[in-house]
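MODEL INPUT / OUTPUT PAIR
PAIR INDEX: 1
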Amino acid sequence: MDTTLVEKAFELAARLHATQTRKASLVPDVPYLGHLMEVAGLVTASGAPMIAVAAALLHDAIEDQGAETRELIEAQLGGDVLALVEECTEPGTGGTQKAPWRERKEGYLQHVRSSSLLALVISCSDKVQNAHDLRRQVYVNGDAAYASFTTGKAARLWFMRAFALAARERLTVLQAEQPGEPLLKGIDYLLFELQEVLSYLESH
């Protein structure tokens, strides 16, 4: 187990996201690093190799910290980790100005439909963690939980549904291509979790 790779990824993620906080959290100013650690934990629990855990810790780095972070990731962690991070990065981000929200999400869904096995487990872990955070907020605050998102409730739930569908479609293809791959079971369960949370959010 290449724990050194994960340690390097954690150190870089902690530095890149040092001043960033979660948009939706039960208490104010929760460090963004907590989200990255939870996503990496879900990736680990799904049975993914350490290269995917390292990429999970940095999956938002290019989106949030700019395109120049590509060089940092490659220099410190190698091209394979960078390639996974790139797969998990929304199109239209990483520059001085992000593309419109819907355009970015549509482009991301296209990525998901052709993603690699390891990128898919990272993306599913990310969306499950985000969904868990949102469910906690809705449980405590009701629809006011969506106030921190500029797009509002309907758009947020649309994206969750669309992601779940796209990821399930990709999983079906990978199951046919790689029968017996243990990681597929981990992804399947992540999507089961996501659907459970989505059902809760749609009924509250």
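PAIR INDEX: 2
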Amino acid sequence: MEHLAGRHRQRGAVLFVTLIVLVVLILAGVAVVRSMETSSQIAGNTAFRQATMHATDRAIVDARNALHQRIVVDKAGNTAVANRYLNTRSANAADFGARGIPTAINWANVTCTKADGTNGDCTANNGDYRFQYVIERQCSANPVLTSVSDVKAKCAYEMTGGAVEVRYRVYIRALGPRGTESFYEVMLGGPYN
């Protein structure tokens, strides 16, 4: 009889150890599933963020066209346009936000464009891609636009085919699905008058 009592105690110990191992395996399985869900969300968010980069291609084309056709036409390069064109760059660190974008830009008042070129609503998240941009001329002060030497003295420029092209920084804010928001900067050369 004593021999059988020892066997029953051993079977109970095996059952207890088996239950502990089963609980550990279940917890490990749950951890793997949660890890995969998090990885999928990260991959999705990264894909949305990268897709906003494609919307910036349209913003760059629009900004270049704006430089050549609307903003700097008829010697208007010295005239700032609120939330669209900054005629001089700031040298003060206090004039820039945490992302390195001038605090003079109020994105709520900047024209919003969909990736297809039509006007959009940047406050609505309809699953589409939208962009906004502001152009900043890289001049320390307004030059005399009829004087090439004054333009060269006050502005960052490059020589292209014998002509002086002033540098412009374009700040781009791209928005996408799920609240994706990305900021980009592009340098362009363009006319000064």
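PAIR 2 NOTE: Residues 173 and 183 are 5 Å apart (CA to CA).
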